């Protein structure tokens, strides 16, 4: 129950804050058309698919498992669905900020060079975030790996594929 509460305490502000603190531009827009609503909806769908379907790769191939007592959906604790929303929202906002800065920085370069630089940045950022999350969760006492070295290298690489697809889509 404690981890479910942690998930709620972490996730609820990402919905409440934009509703309560509305900027000038958003105040004239219908709530369904606001960026935060679309971004949150994308992250909800994206994190649900990742938790429900993709985690089985980590469970079966890399031998990862959650061991804390919890309500589960497809062998994934409900808490992780909530915490994934917050983490993915942070990762994608970070990718948007860095990609927009990068677009501004390379704007005067030929288009094919711009594309190559942005693609390289997405690859590096995706792997970096996936690796850091894998490293961070390795200290969580209720998450176990059979082979940590494989999880750090191979698991992070496969996890990064998810971000390689989603970062450009979220930027749009």
From TrEMBL:
InterPro entries: Cycloeucalenol_cycloisomerase. The chain crosses the membrane at residues 6-23, 35-55, 75-94, 115-132, 152-171. Keywords: Membrane, Transmembrane, Transmembrane helix. GO terms for molecular function: cycloeucalenol cycloisomerase activity. This is Cycloeucalenol cycloisomerase. It comes from Davidia involucrata.
